[in-house]
Amino acid sequence: MAAAKVVYFNITDTLDHERSLLEKWGVADQVELVEATAPNEDDAFVAAVEGADGAVVEYFEVTAEVMDRLPGLKAVGVQAIGTSNIDVASATAHGVTVVNAPGFCVEEVALHTVGMIIDLVRNISLLDRTVRDGKWDPMLGPMPHRISGKTIGLAFFGGIPQGMVPMLKAMGLEVLAWAPTKSVEFLADFGVGKAETLDELLERSDIVSLHTPLLPETHHLISERELALMKPTAYLINTARGKVVDEPALVAALREGRIAGAGIDVIEDEDGDESTELSTFDNVVITPHAAFLSEDSFLAAREISLRGLVERLVHGERPANLVNRDVEI
Predict the structure, then answer these.
(1) Which of the residues 61, 107, 200, 270 is marked catalytic?
(2) CB 176, CB 152: distance < 8 Å
């Protein structure tokens, strides 16, 4: 049997780690890995991937038109959790397996999110900036309040918020979740209360933390109406996806003092110059889509996505991390 050819398109590292994994799994002679560096354009991707069994991408958009031009493609791997850059419905129609890397950065994002909460309620970044500006004055920021006994609301309850719960409870927070697919009993096992609606979560929470994937129904999940439901003393944290929040609406709410502040790791336009008015507010802690980042998470994402491709292309199995469950294999 000929080795399955897998093209890594514009991946920023060598494939030494992947090749060591194939050796470890005993399939090095059954998978040919190819590195391709080219402009992020459809024609360049098609030229690089044509004739291959599989392709691996990070941010490149694999559209329906691209799949139409690659009839021999069997699988696409994404070295991330989100697959909004893949036309999954078209992949399913073409019989193309889509795999991602679920759970690869649970610990990192959970810790980053909790760090943002602590930073906001204790004015850490703000006071750091004032000291560096030559002002040694602990009173320059807003007066902090204790958060023990306050409520944090989690929008969705996957691996990341589940990992946050012990940290949040250790800080004395009451934890509430809006998680339509999770039962009261499931949440109660974590010591978490259930909000029946997003509106209830927003109205009751002193801190709101977003953990939703980017789907058509979660685009601008938080907009002007939702922000108006939040307490004026509440904070919004977004370490999910930028387009989950209507950014101009959030800017307006911050400018008008309708919420207390925000922790932001993702913005709506990360494909442009990455400038955002959110960075001008003292009561916003902002990082450049870095919550997922660690050496360990990088390696985990690469391993999880590659394992899914091997399961599909070498063993002919349905991968454990299969995204399009309806695809015929």
Answers:
(1) 270
(2) yes
